[in-house]
Design a protein that fits this description.
By secondary structure, the protein is of the alpha+beta class. It has 2 domains: 50-274, Jelly Rolls (Sandwich); 324-541, Aminopeptidase (3-Layer(aba) Sandwich), CATH 3.40.630. Helices cover 16% and strands 32% of the residues. It is built from 8 helices and 28 strands. It has helices spanning 103-106, 288-298, 353-372, 394-403, 439-449, 473-478, 493-497, 510-528, and strands at 10-13, 51-57, 72-73, 76-77, 85-87, 92-93, 100-101, 107-110, 113-120, 126-133, 141-149, 155-163, 168-177, 181-189, 195-203, 208-214, 219-223, 226-231, 240-248, 262-274, 283-286, 324-328, 333-343, 379-386, 417-422, 430-436, 460-463, 483-488. A hairpin with a 4-residue loop joins strand 12 (155-163) and strand 13 (168-177). Helix 3 packs across helix 8 (510-528). It is globular. The termini are close together.
């Protein structure tokens, strides 16, 4: 199970010397520099854990006045052949169409800073620029840019990854009007209206460092070392090109005033490819009592030496994880489906008995019970044992997207899923449940829980939150489908077994999990045999997917 809050564990990071390869950054021309950190923060040079640097430029010792960046294309400028930057050619309309990209009249490098001079010329033509670092396209990677801008009315700034196929995904960070606060965006379709937003309270007028991390499973937005949030939903899989733009405002804004002018400034820019095999600094997770003892000893100045024997092993093959699916075919409503599931993957420090082998075992036992009693459900009952849950509900998100879609982009089977039932809170007995849907859904679900009141099961609650929460029922809720999560007795879960080396078979309480298997079989069979499917939110009342926030400690 994944949590939004940190477990009650202490994390001890063991510092080791870094071996950094020489970075492919551009050698500065001219004499020895005096200070090429005008923003007060030096450019990082070299590989980072998990990332291989492919581009770094801090404009050291360069001096190119306005008028130097001539003959530009995305692949370089003939007027500045030693500068590893290209630009959209002079005269090309910017995104809004109000102004034109004119690198020859807007771009300069002075004092270790690249400037985009946003202004209107005497003929009434407003000018801006779109710059491209001369680096390979990224298919997963990271960029960091140190920047600031004047609060110029009518203009905006955006650093963006644009798909080479011009369709699949777009990542913008930062993006905002220059007199507004900085945000980040992930668009499902390039230039499309469906997006996820990551907000900040920062303005352009101070120096900031924007870092965008893009892996196969997650996109993370980081401003000045603090995460604005990350998402595993609609992560692009297409190669992308990085562009840094100052341009006129979008969304129906008027043409910038002729008197408006100022600079968008870049102190340095770096790019990295995703390199998951890059050696990582070792990390050791301690139990709370062990970490507490070390802390107490150190309080009076007594030095503490800790020795670890850490043995790591890489498995270069088998990078694909799989979802295991089985079903009991339905009868007269067999094209409709009731699902139940748990996740097979677990943390490597133990066998993952309570998180979540036992959830999988409960689902398999529930299916066995139904087969043993000769149940003939009207709807198909489908068991799914997920992979990739601990990394961000990857298996369930992919399954839901491929088979059902979402309320906004449904597949033909979106209306065929009746409900999904999930157990992922350890070995404890189920005491209740929550379901994404209107109140009527909770009332119906409670009817199937009511016969188990003697076991201490008490009702269900409805939820309108289209959030992933802590387990795979969240993938269904985010899509607008009836995902059901259970509430269980704690039984050492959060305090002892969750994500620790104590999560072994001996922690299972057999009587409780047998109760849960019987309860699960009864609930899914009851839902499968109803005349009607569970009610859904109407299209005009479907809750929106909320703005993603930071999800640390998962």
């Amino acid at each position: 199970m994944r949590r939004i809050i940190l477990p009650i564990l202490a994390v001890l990071l063991v510092a080791v010397p870094s071996i950094i390869t020489s970075a492919p950054h551009r050698a500065a021309s001219g004499s020895t520099p005096t200070n090429w950190d005008p923003s007060g923060q030096a450019m990082p040079v070299g590989d980072l854990p998990g990332w291989h640097q492919i581009f770094a430029d801090n404009f050291a010792n360069d001096s190119y006045q306005l008028g130097s960046f001539t003959g530009c294309t995305m692949h370089g400028c003939s007027g500045t052949p030693s500068v590893p930057w290209g630009a959209v050619p002079d005269g090309h309309p910017d995104t809004s169409g109000h102004c034109v990209y004119e690198p020859s009249k807007t771009v300069s490098i002075t004092g270790g800073v690249m400037n985009i001079f946003l202004h209107t010329d005497p003929n009434g033509t407003c000018m801006d620029s779109s710059l491209y670092p001369l680096a390979p396209n990224l298919r997963y990677g990271m960029y960091s840019v140190r920047f600031r801008a004047d609060a110029v009315t009518g203009y905006k700034g955006v650093f963006l990854l644009w798909p080479v196929d011009h369709v699949h995904g777009e990542i913008d960070f930062p993006e905002a009007n220059l007199d507004a606060q900085l945000h980040g965006f992930l668009h499902t379709v390039a230039g499309g209206a469906q997006f996820q937003r990551f907000v900040s309270n920062a303005s352009w007028t101070s120096w900031h460092t924007a870092t965008l991390e893009w892996t196969p499973s997650k996109v993370t937005f980081i401003l000045d070392g603090t995460s604005l949030g990350s998402t595993s939903l609609d992560v692009p899989q297409t190669p992308m090109t990085l562009a840094l733009r100052g341009e006129s405002e979008l969304e129906g804004a008027p043409k910038p005033p002729a008197s408006a002018h100022g600079d968008l400034q870049i102190d340095w820019a770096t790019m990295y490819t995703y390199a998951p095999t890059t050696p990582q600094p070792p990390a050791v997770i301690l139990r709370n009592d062990d970490a507490g003892r070390i802390y107490r000893i150190m309080q009076d100045g007594t030095p503490v030496t800790v020795e670890f024997n850490v043995q790591n092993q890489y498995f270069p093959k088998g990078k694909t994880s799989y979802v295991t699916v089985a079903e009991i075919p339905g009868t007269d409503k067999g094209d409709e489906v009731v699902m139940l599931g748990g996740h097979l993957d677990s943390w490597t420090s133990a066998t993952g008995a309570t998180d979540n082998a036992i959830g999988c075992a409960i689902m398999m036992e529930a299916a066995r019970i139904l087969e043993a009693v000769g149940a003939k459900p009207r709807r198909t009952i489908r068991v799914a044992l997920w992979s990739g849950e601990e990394e961000g509900l990857l298996g369930s998100f992919a399954y839901v997207k491929n088979h059902f879609g979402s309320a906004e982009e449904p597949t033909k089977d979106f209306d065929k899923l009746d409900a999904y039932w999930n157990i992922d809170d350890g070995t404890g007995r189920v005491r209740g449940a929550s379901i994404f849907g209107p109140p009527a859904d909770a009332e119906i679900l409670a009817q199937y829980l009511q016969p188990f009141e003697d076991w201490g099961v008490f009702g269900a609650a409805a939820s309108t939150a289209r959030v992933e929460g802590g387990s795979d029922n969240g993938a269904f809720a985010v899509a607008g489908l009836p995902g059901i999560g259970t509430q269980q007795d704690g039984i050492e879960y959060n305090s002892t077994t969750w994500h620790t080396d104590l999560d072994n078979y001996e922690r299972i309480v057999p009587e409780d999990v047998m109760h849960n298997a019987v309860l699960t079989a009864a609930v899914v069979l009851g839902l499968a045999n109803r005349d009607q499917m569970l009610p859904r939110f109407a299209k005009d009342s479907m809750p929106a997917v909320p703005v993603p926030r930071s999800r640390g400690g998962q």
